[in-house]
Design a protein that fits this description.
The protein is α+β, with helices and mostly antiparallel strands and 185 residues long. The chain contains three helices and six strands. β5 and β6 form a beta hairpin.
Length: 185
């Protein structure tokens, strides 16, 4: 009987040792996998952060140039003739080509009336966050939180304040950037 008990306890000890070894091995592999995954996520986050910063700075520089052109050419009024509207759209389109992240480029006047865009010129955008933000703020630049645009896309607005010689707000030139690349399909 003592032999059976000894064999039983010996077998149990062996099973416990094997189980403990397996648990430790699995735990170590899991930890190594987590560290590798964490490292890859950090790399990807740093890459995206760097890319977004570069795109933002590039967009800002292009928007500054567009703001100057709009101000100097007195293009912050709703055009009354189709030829002026066509000229404004062409100017905006040429400059917009430099903005790889822009899904829409637009300009608004001091009342947040859309004066230059690919569509809906004359639309009142005063209820939009970016219009309120640029009108109420003394900040030169705006960058909004993500929101859903009229076409159901998730976008952010980035804009530059246009002022007159007295530093009074006379309009804004801005872009909408789609965030579709963050969505999982």
């Amino acid at each position: 009987m003592k032999e059976r008990v000894s064999i039983f306890y010996g077998s149990m000890l062996f099973v416990i040792l094997i189980s403990t070894t397996l648990v430790i091995t699995i735990s170590n592999n899991y930890q190594q996998h987590n560290k590798k995954l964490e490292s890859e996520l950090r790399f990807n986050a740093n890459f995206v952060s760097t890319w977004l910063n570069l795109i933002y700075k590039h967009s800002h520089n292009v928007l500054e140039g567009m703001a100057t052109d709009l101000h100097n050419n007195h293009l912050l009024t709703v055009p009354f003739s189709s030829s002026v509207l066509k000229e404004q759209k062409e100017l905006l389109s040429i400059e917009a080509e430099m903005l790889v992240n822009a899904s829409n480029v637009f300009a608004i006047n001091n009342e947040c009336i859309l004066v230059n865009a690919s569509s809906d010129v004359g639309a009142n955008l005063s209820s939009r966050e970016y219009c309120k933000q640029i009108q109420e703020s003394t900040e030169h630049d705006i960058f909004t939180d993500p929101f859903v645009n009229l076409f159901g896309k998730i976008v952010v607005a980035q804009g530059v304040r246009v002022t007159n010689k007295s530093d009074q707000f006379i309009g804004m030139v801005g872009i909408l950037s789609s965030l579709d690349f963050f969505l999982v399909h």
